[in-house]
Specification:
Layout: H1 5-16, E1 25-26, H2 35-47, E2 51-57, E3 63-71, H3 73-82, H4 85-98, H5 104-123
Antiparallel strand pairs: 1-3, 2-3
């Protein structure tokens, strides 16, 4: 399965929007028809160190449950780089126009550069 960067951004945003550290997002917070995809991406985010949480699987490997409790420092940093809809849209267009695969480090770098360009354009600096 390929990474879905829009899904990753959605999961991180939903996690950041939690009201406090005593709450979490879980499998039931997402469409049941895409349970495997969401679980897979939460597992990737945990492995990458962007999210703290747990994933449980059925014996056959399918998702049984996940619980994501909070973003880590690096998770916040990444989300800060891609939060803006304008920056995110331009970031995806940049990769598509260049025919380059999106990797974590490249996405963060390109999004950060686009954000700086947007700020410079808005402030005239």
């Amino acid at each position: 399965m390929k990474r879905d960067w829009d899904m990753i951004r959605e999961i991180l945003t939903k996690l950041e929007d939690l009201p406090d550290t005593d709450t979490a997002i879980q499998l039931s917070d997402f469409p049941e028809s895409r349970a495997f995809e969401y679980s897979y991406h939460v597992e990737l985010l945990i492995e990458a160190g962007l999210v703290e949480g747990q994933v449980s699987k059925y014996l056959g490997g399918g998702p049984a449950y996940f619980l994501a409790q909070r973003l880590t420092w690096i998770g916040h940093e990444f989300l800060d780089a891609v939060r803006s809809d304008t920056v995110w849209s331009r970031t995806k267009k940049t990769f598509a126009s260049k025919g380059i695969d999106m990797t974590f480090d490249l996405v963060k770098s390109v999004a950060s550069e686009i954000a700086v360009a947007v700020i410079r354009g808005a402030t005239g600096v």
